[in-house]
Design a protein that fits this description.
Chain lengths: 149, 149
Amino acid sequence: MEPDPSTLLETAIAEARRGLAEGGIPIGAALFHADGRLLGCGHNRRVQEGDPSIHGETDAFRKAGRQRSYRDTIMVTTLAPYWYCSGLVRQFNIGTVVVGEAVNFAGGVQWLRENGTRVVVLDDQRCITMMREWIEANPALWNEDIGEE
Amino acid sequence: MEPDPSTLLETAIAEARRGLAEGGIPIGAALFHADGRLLGCGHNRRVQEGDPSIHGETDAFRKAGRQRSYRDTIMVTTLAPYWYCSGLVRQFNIGTVVVGEAVNFAGGVQWLRENGTRVVVLDDQRCITMMREWIEANPALWNEDIGEE
């Protein structure tokens, strides 16, 4: 039986909160096998490590190590992925993406769907509120993270 | 004066050869400012570190640290970038991409051009030969790196 997307999201939310507590950008992610096993999880650490490549999804992906196939994996993220992480999903044929919210940022959801990825958008109120409050308080950092000048 | 793309490519080729010498996938990359300054360089380390997220371009990008803007930067890579690294280029609006070769792999060159990135493809014979010989000798590892099962 496929795991419940809302249950999987809890892991990503816990990661986002960890990032927030560290003074970072509150975006968390987790990669699960379709059978519900957690393969890896992580969060955005641009601020904490001065590394602009550590987006939540990239962090979860790398922590999962090398996998034979990603077809039966589920990438769960608190916020819709943008080009960088959407490219990751598409390149490695990650079968399903669960998005905590796409209200504050639509990212590459449409592009992923057009190219065959199953995308489940939950629009979880906790994710929406956490991200909105953070963006309002940190507009420059937010623009840096999504590549806006 | 804009730096010569062939000269910039030398740095990426040196990185690719370093990767090959380490027993890894021979793809190297370097991020330059448009004035010719090297900001960061690196190579694919999937094998060496068991980390599937370290593609050449990602490695060069992260080693460059946080930049205010990528508009005036040049990403140089020995092989055409695929979705993951093309997404990186597009998200951060990297102005120019110099591609050592797109013969063994076309990657996201067309997609990047359609979306406004300037892409210079050199089809350098050293890059073509190095990659072709490596792919022929390591088909499984190659497919893993581009997400083919």
